[in-house]
Design brief:
Mean pLDDT: 95
Radius of gyration: 13 Å
Shape: elongated
Order of helices and strands: HHH
Structural class: mainly alpha
Number of strands: 0
Oligomer: single chain
Length: 83
């Protein structure tokens, strides 16, 4: 579980950074559905950190609310798994 969460959060951080890069270069973007799906399956914390680092998707209410809440839920699930 630790490896899964770690890899997925690194991937989600990179994915959010790529989407920001694609937005700047006016290239084809990563869909919001894809970003939210990756967050939902465990990459929320990495994506939340990327959102603050790259200042990307910060005006979208669904990202501003969904990522912190989902991050806390995944942390709680992880702690439950460890106990």
């Amino acid at each position: 579980m630790i490896i899964y969460i770690s890899i997925l959060n690194i991937f989600s951080f990179i994915l959010m950074g790529l989407d920001k890069f694609f937005a700047i270069k006016r290239l084809r973007r990563v869909s919001e559905k894809t970003l939210l799906f990756v967050a939902l399956i465990g990459g929320a914390f990495g994506m939340w950190i990327a959102m603050m680092t790259f200042r990307h998707k910060t005006k979208h209410l669904k990202f501003k609310l969904f990522l912190p809440i989902l991050s806390l839920l995944w942390i709680a699930l992880f702690l439950f798994y460890l106990s």
